[in-house]
């Protein structure tokens, strides 16, 4: 299965156009959150992706809530937040939001580490884990060098050992990769990454 995965579109029309074009060559698109900016303009941001030529699985970022994302998506988009689904024979589990709680204030959709632990406890197996936030210590460094990823996400990847884990959120770490056990972790960014995973 060919997969196009991205994060942090933030309503950027040029990036959306490139993703729509690239989607012609894939079986599945994964969107790892932050489609809009600060809870504003989500329907317009999702409209930029209306031409995607493959089904999309999306998790909410900290810039939109799960309910807002579900309300703004059309047919062909599955929103995951603390739940899983199957696509092309692959088991995919997703959890969005900023984890741990961000310093951005009341507009940001965040979860505590304890809330994330609870949300991830029900996932026993997955081929792909989709997060908005990165795991602690992998692709999670700010421009100031601070490691701001999630321990709950790191622990879940360690326990579940999916074939791939994708995230976004920390813009300074876009494109960075690392390993947790046998699992490759990739901080995506809006440019998109291609993966091929056989069921």
UniProtKB/TrEMBL annotation:
Stored Pfam families: Metallophos_2
Domain (Calcineurin-like phosphoesterase): residue spans on this chain: 1-190
InterPro entries according to UniProt: Calcineurin-like_PHP_lpxH (IPR024654), Metallo-depent_PP-like (IPR029052), UPF0046_metallophosphoest (IPR051693)
Organism domain of life: Bacteria
Family named by the database record: Belongs to the metallophosphoesterase superfamily. YfcE family.
Protein name: Serine/threonine protein phosphatase
Organism the protein comes from: Marinibacterium profundimaris
């Amino acid at each position: 299965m060919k997969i196009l995965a991205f994060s942090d579109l933030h309503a950027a029309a040029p990036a959306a156009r490139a993703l729509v074009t690239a989607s012609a060559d894939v079986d599945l698109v994964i969107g790892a959150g932050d489609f809009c900016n600060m809870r504003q303009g989500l329907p317009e941001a999702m409209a930029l992706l209306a031409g995607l030529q493959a089904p999309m699985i999306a998790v909410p970022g900290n810039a939109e809530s799960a309910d807002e994302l579900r309300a703004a998506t059309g047919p062909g988009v599955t929103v995951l937040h603390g739940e899983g689904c199957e696509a092309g024979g692959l088991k995919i589990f997703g959890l969005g939001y900023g984890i741990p709680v961000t310093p951005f204030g009341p507009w940001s959709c965040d979860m505590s580490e304890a809330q994330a632990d609870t949300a991830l406890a029900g996932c026993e197996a997955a081929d792909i884990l989709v997060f908005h936030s990165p795991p602690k210590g992998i692709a999670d460094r700010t421009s100031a060098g601070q490691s701001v990823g999630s321990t709950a996400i790191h622990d879940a990847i360690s326990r579940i050992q999916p074939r791939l884990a994708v995230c976004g959120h920390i813009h300074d770490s876009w494109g960075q990769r690392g390993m947790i056990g046998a699992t490759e972790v990739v901080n995506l960014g809006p440019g998109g990454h291609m993966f091929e995973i056989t069921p």
